[in-house]
Design a protein that fits this description.
Mean pLDDT of chain A: 94
Largest sheet of chain A: 6 strands, mixed
Largest interface: A-B, 22 and 26 residues
Oligomer: heterodimer
Low-confidence stretches of chain B: none
Distance between the termini of chain A: 40 Å
Order of helices and strands of chain A: EEEEEEEEEEE
Structural class of chain A: mainly beta
Shape of chain A: globular
Number of strands of chain B: 11
Number of strands of chain A: 11
Mean pLDDT of chain B: 94
Strand content of chain A: over 45%
Radius of gyration of chain B: 13 Å
Chain lengths: 110, 113
């Protein structure tokens, strides 16, 4: 099956800093989503972005499907941004299976 | 705006007991999914229902059964719980298939002693 790797695995930043999270995948995809799992365990949909660039407030994401990677940018970090960020993809040959990466744990220090 | 609702939120079972996890969505979505999340890992697909009346196995289906009761509801059953099934279970739904964005419930934390 498709492999999804996220980097870095852990990231500790001061409040106000910017960060870039990366997601690499091993095969062609027709769906890519970014999620934020907050400290209470809730999974929040951030972006549905199989290709191109999207922005939502301080967050933006870019997917370059031909090069098999996606980036999540967080600007002016706040403590509420802490949690685990997951990238998840659907492989073209496994239509119903959303495969998750292992996540990036982000800790924002006041 | 309930979205995807899961019940219960927490449950402790003894080995060998049975249990049904409930999931309901109010977004008129056709597709529904059950995932499990083990500590320090991403989610893995257990079963899915692409549309009302259909169910299919995902990546880790052993030890589970599902029922798509109607368009709104998709339940997950553990017939004989085992400690290896201790996990957090998430239900999700999408308008039609995994190519569309999936929306998740808040999860059920299940411990098997």
């Amino acid at each position: 099956g498709i492999q999804v790797e996220q980097s870095p695995p852990d990231l500790i930043l001061q409040e106000g800093a910017n960060s870039t999270l990366r997601c690499n995948f091993s095969d062609s995809v027709n769906n890519l989503q970014w999620f934020h799992q907050n400290p209470w365990g809730q999974l929040i949909n951030l972006f549905y972005i199989p290709s191109g660039t999207k922005q939502n407030g301080r967050l933006s994401a870019t997917t370059v499907a031909t090069e098999r990677y996606s980036l999540l940018y967080i600007s002016s970090s706040q403590t509420t941004d802490s949690g685990v960020y997951f990238c998840a993809v659907v492989n073209l040959t496994e239509n119903e299976k959303l495969t998750f990466g292992t996540g990036t744990r982000l800790t924002i220090i006041p | 705006n309930a979205g995807v609702t899961q019940t219960p939120k927490f449950q402790v079972l003894k080995t060998g007991q049975s249990m049904t996890l409930q999931c309901a969505q109010d977004m008129n979505h056709n597709s529904m999914y059950w995932y499990r999340q083990d500590p320090g890992m991403g989610l893995r697909l257990i079963y899915y229902s692409a549309s009302e009346g259909t169910t299919d196995k995902g990546e880790v289906p052993n030890g589970y059964n599902v029922s798509r009761l109607n368009k709104r509801e998709f339940s997950l059953r553990l017939e004989s719980a085992a400690p290896s099934q201790t996990s957090v279970y998430f239900c999700a739904s999408s308008h039609q298939g995994a190519r569309q964005p999936q929306h998740f419930g808040d999860g059920t934390r299940l411990s098997i002693l």
